[in-house]
Amino acid sequence: MEFEEYKQEEQGEEDYVDIYSRKAIFGFAIFSTMYAGVLLIINLWVAGYKQIISQVVLFILGFSFLSRYLVQLLGFKIDVVALQKTIAAKKQFTNEQILQLSAITAIQMGLNVIAGLVLTRYFFKKYFPDDDYYPRPIYRPVIIFIILILFLGFIL
């Protein structure tokens, strides 16, 4: 008579997942809500929460439209033609242009911080409440982000 041996699985290592940390997502959210959302979507995909991805996408798109509407509602307008002429003529920006650009940048970064808080304090905390994950290194997302910024800077 033979006995079957059952191997007990150790639950220590198999419960852990490699995902981007909360700090990494919040850090990227300060500069780009969309990019931080993509990192959170990757986390949800890896962890098996595929049904929640649509909620994150809807939040990112809705927040992007809302932030653009809010900037327009506040009355900040950029004279793109004047900026292009200034750049083409290699002249210095006027104080008014600098003030407008810095105000829009400050408002956008403030809104991005709010979006980052929602992404990390609501979505991340809801689906990754414990610290039972291994943080993924962020050197790849940083390099991709820099390449995207440089590429989009040359196009625009």
Explained architecture:
The protein has helices at residues 11-14, 22-31, 33-47, 53-73, 80-88, 95-127, 139-155, and strands spanning 17-19, 133-135. The N and C termini lie far apart (76 Å). It is 70% helix and 4% strand. It has seven helices and two strands. The longest helix has 33 residues, at 95-127. It is mainly α and 156 residues long. The chain is elongated and about 60 Å long.
| Secondary-structure element series | HEHHHHHEH
What is the helix fraction of residues, given as a range? 55-70%
Structural class from helices and strands? Answer: mainly alpha
Number of helices: 7
Give short descriptive properties of this protein:
mainly alpha, 156 residues, 7 helices, single chain, two-stranded parallel ribbon
Please give a quick description of this structure.
The chain is mainly alpha-helical and 156 residues long. The protein has helices at residues 11-14, 22-31, 33-47, 53-73, 80-88, 95-127, 139-155, and strands spanning 17-19, 133-135.
Please render the helix and strand layout as text.
Blueprint: H1 11-14, E1 17-19, H2 22-31, H3 33-47, H4 53-73, H5 80-88, H6 95-127, E2 133-135, H7 139-155
Parallel strand pairs: 1-2
Helix pairs in contact: 2-3, 2-6, 3-4, 3-6, 4-6
